[in-house]
Specification:
alpha/beta, six-stranded mixed β-sheet, seven-stranded mixed β-sheet, binds ligand DWN, about 400 residues
């Protein structure tokens, strides 16, 4: 049974950066009610009413995974590790974005799957890319009984696909006998611990726990055999999954992770009810900070036009009332307006000037990278605001 625990209100699609604020554009903006539920049977946490992926992963998809140094380095590192450990002949990535992970393998081994046409067009010149949604039909087109994948990798994508049964069935078909599926997605435990409710938006249909994922993959004759915590995106998990009958033994590390999730009561609805109360308090505290700063005539901007901040801004009703503009390094976000609240997005070169007093960390998951980059801003007295793990002005 699914039980609702969090209501994040009327929300736009987090990827719907508007080209202008004309009446025509604004009248077409799509909104839906974003709420989050817990499944008391398999412990899955999911968006209650997912949006049809066809409206989300279009040829206007804005996010480029290569934009941060942190992610470029993290993907190069894991690609090297997987290559050394499993010696794959064929590597497939589901949701290859701009190729930041898969480009680290020799071209002859690569199969990329990316439904956003603008992104697939970027990588198809460099290696084999299927501009399609991942499903059984595509799996059968790519693979056969004699041709299977030794590694299937997918970062921040499986959690975006509503139909998990079909997704994992198609993966089971595509994996070689001892092939390994490696997925990375935000960690539910980190979300609960950090009050990072902004990890919930239309694209994050699921925020997985190891407990829930192990239940889900079983239905497709797959087995979660290992898992590790990773630092990316404010706390993620890397999961290793194989066919039921594959040679891999379940690791002690996985056992400990599952035990800890039970200790932290991720299998208990009450945990989520309590989280929901903390989210409401976080909202009140953040609005209070903005109001105080505005009453002192401080100039506030936001740093990183993230999808996550779309949830925060629309939930807390933070728009041009508090924030002058958002800076982002991604060229195709610059010159546009944020979803729902319609705050202009400009380049950091233009935006991080001397007039700025405070910058809200929309990309709080890259805090370390950003603080290092923005030493000048901090030196002249500029301060960052965050809402994770609690709403506050950072002292440094
Ligand atoms: O799962 C998803 C994650 C991985 O990426 C997607 N559904 C969509 C997207 O979500 P997001 O926008 O919340 O992700 P990021 O990676 O937190 O976005 C960071 C944004 O901040 C990018 O637009 C780049 C920008 N940025 C910047 O302007 N200056 C990032 C850094 C590090 C910087 O210094």
């Amino acid at each position: 049974m699914r039980k609702k625990f969090l209501n994040l209100g009327r929300q736009p699609l987090a990827n719907s950066f508007l080209p202008s604020k004309s009446k025509k554009i604004l009248s077409k903006e799509f909104f839906y009610n974003l709420s989050v539920s817990f499944n008391t049977t398999n412990y899955l946490v999911s968006v209650t009413n997912p949006v049809n992926p066809k409206f989300q992963y279009t040829d206007k998809y804005a996010h480029r995974a290569s934009e941060s140094f942190t992610m470029r380095t993290a993907f190069a590192k894991i690609a090297k590790r997987l290559n050394k450990k499993y010696l794959p002949k064929i590597v497939m990535e589901i949701g290859s974005n701009d190729g930041v992970f898969i480009k680290n393998f020799p071209k002859r081994k690569i199969i990329a799957v990316e439904p956003c046409k603008n992104l697939a067009n970027l990588t198809k010149k460099k290696f084999k890319t299927f501009p399609n949604f991942w499903n059984k039909k595509l799996a059968k087109k790519i693979f056969s009984e004699s041709r299977k994948a030794d590694i299937i990798f997918s970062a921040n994508t499986i959690s975006h696909i509503p139909n998990l049964k079909e997704t994992f069935d198609a993966i089971e078909y595509s994996l070689s006998k001892n092939g390994v599926l490696v997925i990375e997605d935000p960690s539910l435990l980190s979300v609960i611990k950090n009050n990072s409710y902004d990890q919930f938006y239309d694209e994050h249909v699921y925020i997985f726990s190891a407990l829930a994922l192990s239940n889900v993959v079983k239905k497709s004759n797959l087995r979660l055999f290992n898992s590790e915590k990773i630092a990316t995106h404010g706390g993620s998990m890397r999961y290793y999954i194989c066919k039921d009958s594959a040679r891999f033994k379940n690791t002690q590390k996985l056992d400990l992770i599952l035990k800890n999730e039970k200790k932290m009561k991720l299998n208990n609805f009450l945990t989520y009810k309590k989280f929901s109360k903390r989210v409401i308090n976080s909202k009140k505290k953040l609005i209070k900070i903005f109001k105080i700063l505005k009453s002192k005539n401080k100039k506030i901007i936001s740093y990183g036009a993230t999808y996550k901040s779309s949830t925060v801004f629309n939930f807390c009703k933070i728009g041009n009332n508090f924030i002058d503009y958002v800076t982002d390094t991604t060229l195709n976000k610059q010159g546009k307006f944020t979803p729902g609240q319609h705050i202009p997005i400009i380049s950091p070169e233009e935006g991080m000037n001397k007039s700025v007093d405070f910058a809200f960390l929309g990309a709080w998951n890259f805090k370390k990278e950003i603080l290092k980059k923005e030493k000048e801003f901090i030196k002249r007295g500029g301060k960052f605001i965050t809402h994770v793990p609690s709403a506050k002005i950072l002292s440094k």
